[in-house]
Specification:
By secondary structure, the chain is of the alpha/beta class. It has 16 helices and eleven strands. This is MoxR family ATPase.
């Protein structure tokens, strides 16, 4: 007996494909599950950077912590210590489109932000058109930032804090995420200008780049003078970084860590500190932005190390990168041999 042909309706039911399941984002996952996935991604990111950069594991962690916190980092060190190469490699591994500005004494604010040009159409009508500057990117490499004049350095203030710039009275939003990784030569070197305090405060972390030890330098020599060099791979994307930044802000912080942050920040202010060295030797101390930076950076460091919540050890470890560029010693204190490193270390030990 012949079978009846299947109806078009039943045929449609048997051949129709179910829509692909939408990938769950970190922002909608449970914090524990999202943190586990993020830890794996971040470990792969660090490994990718490590193919090119040798002996700077702590500095790589600080730079990634600044990005995960949604902030900016200032890399300080002598010329030739791979500061620029580190920023370039981080840009590749994080998948952030980058632009580089070489800061020089003749650099003008318009060279960073962009400018308006007068154009005339076919009918003879004239109008201004805005041409965006290199600041319109997701990762801005400000190379040797302290070789430009204070006026030019100040052009970045609004961009770093508000994530938009104003040119000729018009607001122009920057892409998200937006980060500045700036390199700075020691202020003692010729042709440098001190960064304004207001701009220093906008850097979430200061990352000091040291000279490599003998073992790391040998590895650098062998890896960079041969016929081929290691290359970093893109691990993250801008969308994933935004998810990671949202995850960092969802991570819980214990009351003990909050108290340690408050104790540290308040103890570094000369008007309220009970420490005699701070009272008599510190010209100006950290403001509320320092506490915010320390809170976010502690969460980011915990995530980078595979922990769900920060501890007081994170506060102690990040005290110097957060506070060093937000404090200044008086001339008398420096003459007596007091250093910011030793002072911050002592304050961090008491705060925790």
């Amino acid at each position: 007996m012949a079978r009846k042909p299947a109806s078009s309706t039943s045929k449609t039911k048997t051949t129709a494909r179910k829509p692909a399941a939408k990938k769950e984002s970190l922002a909608t996952m449970d914090v524990v599950k999202a943190a586990d996935i993020a830890t794996e991604k971040l470990a792969a990111t660090r490994a990718s950077i490590g193919k090119v950069i040798y002996g700077l594991e702590d500095q790589i962690e600080l730079c990634l912590a600044a990005i995960l916190s949604g902030g900016h980092a200032l890399l300080v060190g002598a010329p030739g210590l791979a500061k620029t190469r580190l920023v370039e490699t981080i840009a590749i591994a994080t998948g952030l489109d980058t632009k580089r500005i070489q800061f020089t004494p003749d650099l003008m604010p318009a060279d960073i932000l962009g400018s308006e040009v007068l154009e005339e159409d076919k009918s003879g009508k004239r109008s201004f058109r805005f041409i965006p500057g290199p600041v319109f990117c997701r990762l801005l490499m400000a190379d040797e930032i302290n070789r430009a004049s204070p006026r030019t350095q100040a052009a970045l203030l609004q961009a770093m804090q508000e994530r938009y710039v104003t040119v000729a009275g018009e607001r122009h939003d920057l892409p998200a995420p937006f980060h500045v990784l700036a390199t700075q030569n020691p202020i003692e070197q010729e042709g440098t200008y001190p960064l304004p305090e207001a701009q220093l405060d906008r850097f979430l972390l200061r990352v000091d780049i040291p000279y490599p030890d003998r073992g790391d330098e040998k590895e650098i020599l062998l890896a960079t003078t041969g016929s081929s060099e290691g290359e970093a791979d893109a691990v993250l994307s801008p969308e994933e970084i935004l998810d990671l930044q949202a995850l960092v802000r969802r991570m819980p912080v214990g009351e003990k860590v909050v108290d340690a942050i408050l104790n540290l920040v308040h103890s570094a202010r000369p008007d309220v500190s009970v420490d005699s060295d701070v009272q008599h030797g510190v010209s100006w101390g950290p403001g509320p932005r320092a506490g915010q930076a320390l809170m976010l950076a502690c969460r980011a460091r915990a995530l980078l190390q595979g922990r769900l919540a920060p501890s007081t050890e994170d506060v102690a470890a990040l005290a110097e990168p957060v506070l060093k560029h937000r404090m200044a010693l008086s001339f008398a204190a420096r003459a007596d041999g007091l250093t910011l490193e030793s002072l911050i270390s002592r304050l961090a030990t008491k705060a925790a």
